[in-house]
Design a protein that fits this description.
Elements: E1 2-4, H1 19-30, E2 35-38, H2 47-53, E3 58-60, E4 65-68, E5 71-75, H3 80-93, E6 97-100, E7 105-107, H4 113-120, E8 128-129, E9 141-145, H5 148-157, E10 161-167, E11 170-175, H6 180-191, E12 199-202, H7 208-213, E13 216-219, H8 225-228, E14 233-234, H9 242-249
Parallel strand pairs: 1-2, 1-12, 2-3, 7-8, 12-13, 13-14
Antiparallel strand pairs: 3-4, 4-5, 6-7, 6-9, 9-11, 10-11
Helix pairs in contact: 1-9
């Protein structure tokens, strides 16, 4: 069983899938290995890559939404009252939020440069304005847009939430204890895999729990040192055939 993060792991710094990575994934599938994404992205953000690679299993929203062979097997949305409280506090502090469900995302601000810069790195435009988007649907993840220094106030106030920074101006907001490892645990239990049979590739802070949980962890060469330290293996940069090299390094190809 092999899990792949997307941004900075499968997709390079220009959000492209290297040809060597595509060939490696298809070879893994041909060899009979079970393949899934493990990402902070929402399901609606995965469709192009899912179609290109023919993968219908994933751990999304950093573990809060798990799809196995096209069937939803686990969800863990943030309670509406918690999001309402977070929204009121963020509004008071002048920090915008973006709310994400399985089908889309909306912003608490009509326009904000922090959102534009951060979301732009994912090659998405500034989301549409709907400050009450969370009120009548399941929200699995929220993005908070502020500096790391400002984030500390949220961490102290909202103990029922986890804040995982993915950009200098933004952090993912999850239910407390939520992680890719949590989603993977439910995924492999359904299939009957042991942790020792599971491999995972990642490159960023939201991959830490996943890399510590699986039996065979691989950090991309472009990972920060904090991620490399917890991984069993370190492969090359994503733009230097890091996926193909890493799969050869661990003996899967």
């Amino acid at each position: 069983m092999v899990f792949f993060d997307i941004d900075g792991t499968l997709l390079d710094h220009d959000k492209r899938l290297p040809a060597s990575a595509k060939e490696a994934i298809l070879a893994l599938k041909e060899a009979g290995h079970e393949i899934a994404f493990a990402t902070g992205r929402s399901p609606f953000m995965l469709e192009p890559l899912r179609r290109e690679l023919g993968i219908d299993s994933f751990v999304g929203f950093n573990g809060q939404y798990v799809m196995l062979h096209g069937k939803l097997i686990y969800t863990n949305p943030i309670p509406t009252e918690v999001i309402r409280s977070l929204s009121e506090y963020a509004l008071h502090r002048g920090h915008p939020l973006v709310y994400l469900d399985a089908e889309g995302m909306r912003s608490s601000s009509r326009h904000h440069p922090y959102i534009e810069e951060s979301i732009g790195t994912l090659q998405y435009p500034h989301p549409e304005y709907d400050p009450h988007f969370y009120a009548d649907r399941d929200i699995y993840q929220t993005m908070l847009f502020c500096t790391g220094q400002d984030e500390s106030g949220y961490i102290e106030r909202f103990r029922e939430l986890d804040f995982v920074r993915w950009h200098r101006l933004s952090a993912d907001v999850l239910p407390f204890g939520g992680s890719k490892a949590q989603g993977i645990e439910r995924f492999i239990a359904k299939l009957g895999f042991r942790r020792e049979q599971v491999y995972a590739f990642g490159d960023n802070l939201n991959d830490l729990e996943m890399l510590q949980y699986v039996g065979h962890s691989v950090a991309m060469g472009n990972s920060p040192e904090s991620v490399k330290k917890v991984a069993r293996y370190i492969t090359k940069d994503v733009s230097r055939d890091g996926i193909a090299y890493g799969l050869e390094l661990v003996g899967l190809l």
